[in-house]
Queue: 3 jobs
Job 1
Amino acid sequence: MNTVTRLGGFALGLAAVFGAAYGIGQVAGPAAPVAESRHDGGAAHEADPAGHGEAVDRFPGGLLVSDQGYTLEPVAAPAGEFAFRIGGPDGQPVTRYDVAHDKQMHLIVARRDLSGFRHVHPDLAPDGTWRVATPLAGPGQWRAFADFTPTGGEPLTLGVDVTVPGALTERPLPSPTTSTTVDGYTVTLTGAPQPGRTSPLTLTVSRDGQPVTNLEPYLGAYGHLVALRRGDLAYLHVHPDGVPGDGRTPPGPAVTFLAEVPSAGTYRLYLDFRHGGAVRTAEFTVVAGTPTTGTPPTGGEPTPSGPAPTGGTDHGTPGHGHN
Ligand SMILES: [Cu+2]
């Protein structure tokens, strides 16, 4: 049995049911019961009948369009706008949300090839509709993630597929790297995520060879890190280790996060940071779960299909088949 394949098939099934044709006025309908998962995380166990799932209580975020009675529902929007609602357990759109990371709603989008990442903050209308200038930069198969906490509920990340019609050029995933540049900033990555355990990831920002020591708070931290898993775009919101004003966290050049990835595999990391009044995103490809005795996977060549090219790792790692 291969949990990755099973998860992937489930995600594709959702895509077929809930995929929305963005830009031509056709939107996904409300979720069918198939997408409901039980509050106790039973869905994760159902996906792993061989009993390897003891290390995971539930799915990673973003794989479900509907969870715990809440459903991500794209709605028709004028050109240039993206709009959606969160349907609540009572069938009505949710209108009350808790603030988390400075916002009531975080909307993250990325193409299925992991390009085009954007993190935006829509505006809530009184009827429960969220609207934002479209974050979808061009044609392709997109995944939209709504990261929110309904008042009285638990934090949730729901995901839905959105299609932007047009000619698409698939972008190969960049090779794993520990340094990248964005708008004249160089960001280096120290540390590697390990499946099933919390690992520190430190991102260090410099500009023109000088460390940046006056990063500006963004969403209550000196950086905001999202990771997406290649193959199914499982969504991980990675928490910073320390926040501005806590007396121990400097405003750069290094920002440390505590990451726990749900499986071995290839992930794309997206670090949002603010400096000089502007938010930039530094991106990295990383491989988690390097075999302890083997050679690290190298290169960035995507496998044509199926799970990421990783070797055997710890027993009990979710999302990983035994050969
Ligand atoms: Cu946000």
Note: The two ends are 10 Å apart (CA to CA).
Job 2
Amino acid sequence: MFGTGLFDGAADLLPWLVYGAPLLLIWLVRGRRRRAQHRRSLAALDESRSAGLSEPPSLHPLIDPSLCLGCGTCVTACPEGDVLGMVHGKARLVNPTHCIGHGACQEACPQDAISLVLGTENRPVAIPVTGPDFQTNVPGLFVAGEIAGMGLIRNAVEQGRQAVASIRTLPGIGAGSDLDLAIVGAGPAGLAASLAAQEAGLRYVTLEQDTLGGTVSHYPRGKIVMTRPVELPLVGPVRFAETTKEELLAFWRRVQGETRIRIRDRERVEKIDRADGGFAIDTTRGHYRARAVLLAIGRRGTPRKLGVPGEERPKVVYSLVDPEQYAGRRVLVVGGGDSAIEAALAISEQPRAAVALSYRGEAFSRAKPKNRERLQAAETVRALSVLLGSQVAEIRERDVVLDTDKGRLELPNDDVIVCAGGEVPTPFLQAAGIEIQQARQRRMR
Ligand SMILES: Cc1cc2nc3c(=O)[nH]c(=O)nc-3n(C[C@H](O)[C@H](O)[C@H](O)COP(=O)(O)OP(=O)(O)OC[C@H]3O[C@@H](n4cnc5c(N)ncnc54)[C@H](O)[C@@H]3O)c2cc1C
């Protein structure tokens, strides 16, 4: 009797052992993973906060914690990888400045707990007031793309195309001796607008302070670009979904060559005034008159210049795109923020590169603590010299001249990278008479 009872008990336990033990194991492993993810996310959140990088620049997810189930599908769905995290079992924006506003998190959320919004309570985003045709309060002055509030390549392309569709119906288009349209900016919005203007037979000019590509040309080398199929005027449907920065730029350059759209590179628009039912446009190279103006200027603004002799040399650039191109070169990086420090560090890792980092302040007080530590470590082991309290006085063909506390310093030099921040586009819009509104958590989709 006794022996049979024991046998019966073991038999009862068997299903628990067969099914229960693996479930228990899975539960334990999941719990461990969740705790590790929570720790990682908290660390990322703390780092963003302590570096003052706690506000998303543009479109971003707003997560309703009362609806979030903590399933983490939004975290995995984000194409940028490190933007969202899980804190105390709920999704959180842990790396706000890396958010591009793809909206993949919103689409993936099974609970509809995510909305895409523009601006935050602490940092509203200034956007022009426009009608559905993208016309601002200044008749004949239009905006499209990121400056109008909607980020992403596809939206910019779509808006550039639609804005030109509205512009071509304006009275006075096609008449008189002025251009019909001046397009400012040749990012995705300006490119699509230029193609649409060419297709519509408008007399237009596209003015770009840099070169074709806009923000895309400043992405890091090899960045994966997530986009969606779009219709490009004169080209037809373009079915890119996932590509690289280089492929996308090469495609746009091919389109520019084949369609012969007219883009005037390295010509910055400085002033737009109303004149005789149209506009007078002053640029760094000339003067134009046009019946309508489309601003497709994005939000990156214009890089702040040093204003020193020799700054116009081609060896001077305003952002680091590809550190590898500086192998074996003597580089001066100018600036005291994170982008300057990160550029100097990345170049110092290249073989035979020699980097000097010049900053007029006495300490890198604006930079992330982690970057300051990395800089100190790199100074001792690599070819990186830090010149605090120094200011660039002149940029010459083969060297640079710096003013320092100890007098003038001449450094042999091949390249200069200026990371001195940028001038935001809002004053430019206001000077043109455009009414601006402040978006605070405004729902966009
Ligand atoms: C790091 C990063 C990664 C991203 N990844 C993606 C992605 O994977 N997928 C995606 O869809 N989106 C992505 N985006 C967003 C996307 O790049 C932008 O939404 C898009 O480029 C906006 O296009 P735009 O034409 O409105 O402006 P921009 O691309 O910013 O172009 C504006 C142009 O106007 C020019 N300009 C400005 N002022 C003047 C002036 N006064 N005179 C003459 N020219 C002027 C500028 O030089 C620039 O070329 C990313 C953004 C960043 C920062």
Note: The pocket of flavin-adenine dinucleotide is lined by residues 100, 145-146, 151-154, 156, 184-190, 207-210, 214-216, 219, 225-227, 268-269, 296-298, 300, 302 (CB under 6 Å).
Job 3
Amino acid sequence: MKMGFEESQTPYSSGSQSARVWTERWVKDWVYCPNCGSPHISQFPANSPVADFFCPSCSEEYELKSQKTAFGSKVVDGAFRTITERLAANNNPNLLLLNYDLAQLAVVNALIVPKHFFVQEIIEKRKPLAATARRAGWVGCNILLKEIPPSGKIFFVQNGVPVPKEKVLAQWQRTLFLREKATEARGWLVEVMKCVESMDRREFNLDDIYAFDQHLSRLYPGNQNVRPKIRQQLQYLRDRGYLDFVGRGQYRLRSSS
Ligand SMILES: [Zn+2]
């Protein structure tokens, strides 16, 4: 994997247009499909409303967002209604985020947020465009990256260094079980995974995770049985190989490598 862009093919003079061409070319040259390992993904025809890339082997779809600064707590996405509908229909694309260094003309970070981490909780509705805007009343949305646990951010390249392919594929496989759940049920699972991963250690006990019950009650005010609900998620996560029960109320996260 080479980090630098192919400078020779720059048909545009505007910086952002060139960057789009460079980053798309880089994805075509170097990004493999994390789902099936196919060495390349293909580009949809320009302005395709569906996504930007797809895997010719397993049909997995990818939407590319690239920018010159590192991605912060949120990223601007398209129409709120479109993404909500696609979420409900379970056909939203995976999100491929790429940030590059304009001086070096090279990729700094490339990561994928798998589509199964997309739940309603991470979609933030933006204010409608002002009446004076060309698309007055149009409502966009933000993807709240900070609400996605680390296991839902799969780096191909981190700080200019490529991550070994087998590690990327293993990390992808590790959370694929989330696709078995409808988006609503998935919200709870992802929230519990986020609590677990925010502790940043491999072993924890039930009390550690119960410490998040206030937080979860606020998120799901309709649920009166937060602790049983937490235990139910932990059981599910054990059954799917995300963590192990190692003793009475003791848990251990499985590593992805
Ligand atoms: Zn594939």
Note: The first strand starts at residue 42 and ends at 43.
